[in-house]
Design brief:
Length: about 375
């Protein structure tokens, strides 16, 4: 058994998954990124150095040379299946065509549950839908992606759910009271309740909605004192600071980059993590792995219904999190009011979050890839 996995790059949160695929499927990884993705953060560690990998952009190769390298590499060696991440404007159709030419089983791995509405994406939608329908198997982030694929005419039997996973071992580390106090001191926070945001400061992340919700809570005398900590960088950083100034909010602290291997302390400190993502013309949050990360510390989650994790099987409203409509500051403020005014609710949701996330492991995620490969080979032979 030999499998080729074609994807953009190996972010830190995929390393352990890819190690399992290398071991169980004898996978070789073909990385084609030019570091232009929005989720590419130069300060974040990336993995893959110890993986059997081909870096198609080495030496600064342009798109044509990268595609030529990929084509020759996939032709030179005989693989039992291709697993193709759905990103890559030219890589996806080239790999699909080659798979059909060579009669190699072809598997799509996708987190999309909303097709982008740019001109390019509208023009190429028929091709993407055709690839979905003709793939031998598909691997989906969660039930929300499965439902989307079925709506496009994909046979449900060919869809396998790889429950999207973060590194539980990294994020469930115990945090001492001394460490929590040290972080409070570092941030200049005393006894306030802490509302945490972690992510890119861009339109689709909905930080402006969170700020408007905070403004609605400002004069609520029934609530404890609150401090919002916003961790991230991005194109809207200055605009969001200006929004706080305009609303006269003095209880928002903006942090720049926070290393991933220290975020678990922030999750342990926070009373609630807010994930207020919104749907834009070209983006809908595929998952939001910060949800997985924070649940390991029993941090209460409030997410919008535009977050994949809130629609894909991880978050359950009123059971292990609260889910609110996207772009609705009043609804978000109401959820924050409930959580911040009730220690019992925070404890209930936090305990349920810990219990839920314990089952979301890389081994469980990898099994979907293993099952999809086995299915695709059987399905391909019957064509």
């Amino acid at each position: 058994m030999r499998v080729a996995v074609i994807t953009n790059f190996c972010p830190f949160y995929r390393v352990k998954l890819f190690r399992i695929l290398a071991r169980e499927l004898h996978a070789t990884f073909f990385f084609f990124s030019d570091a232009s993705e929005k989720n590419w953060e130069q300060l974040n560690p990336t993995g893959g150095d110890e993986l059997p990998a081909v870096h198609l952009r080495r030496g600064g190769a342009g798109t044509l040379r990268m595609l030529s390298r990929l084509f020759r590499a996939l032709r030179r060696e005989r693989y039992d299946a291709f697993i193709q991440g759905i990103s890559g404007r030219f890589v996806v159709p080239v790999t699909f065509i080659l798979a059909r030419w060579q009669r190699t089983p072809y598997i799509v791995w996708t987190g999309f549950w909303h097709h982008p509405q740019s001109l390019f994406h509208r023009l190429t939608f028929p091709l993407v839908r055709h690839i979905y329908r003709r793939a031998d198997a598909l691997i989906a982030y969660g039930t929300h992606v499965r439902a989307y694929l079925i709506s496009l005419g994909v046979d449900p039997q060919r869809i396998f759910i790889a429950w999207n996973t973060a590194d539980n071992e990294l994020y469930n580390q115990p945090v001492s009271q001394a460490a929590l106090q040290a972080l409070r001191t570092q941030l200049g926070i005393t006894d306030e309740c802490i509302i945490l945001f972690v992510g890119r400061l861009s339109e689709e992340k909905g930080v402006d909605v969170l700020i408007n919700a905070l403004a609605l809570l400002r004069d609520d005398a029934a609530l404890p004192r609150v401090r919002a900590v916003v961790c991230g960088r991005g194109p809207l950083a200055d605009a969001l600071r200006a929004q706080c100034a305009r609303l006269q909010l003095t209880n928002v602290t903006f942090l720049d980059y926070v290393p991933n291997d220290t975020l678990y302390v922030y999750y342990a400190l926070a009373d609630v993590l807010v994930v207020p993502s919104v749907t834009t013309r070209v983006f809908k949050e595929p998952w939001g792995l910060i949800v997985n990360e924070a649940m390991n510390q029993g941090c209460v989650i409030i997410a919008s219904d535009a977050v994949g994790a809130a629609r894909g099987g991880l978050l359950a409203h009123e059971r292990n999190a609260l889910v609110v409509p996207e772009r609705d500051p009043a609804a978000l403020a109401g959820a924050l009011r409930r959580v911040l005014s009730s220690a019992a609710l925070r404890a209930q949701l936090g305990q349920a979050a810990r219990a839920t996330i314990a089952h979301w492991t890389y081994e469980r995620m990898a099994q979907a890839f293993i099952d999809a490969v086995a299915f695709s080979r059987r399905h391909h032979e019957t064509r």
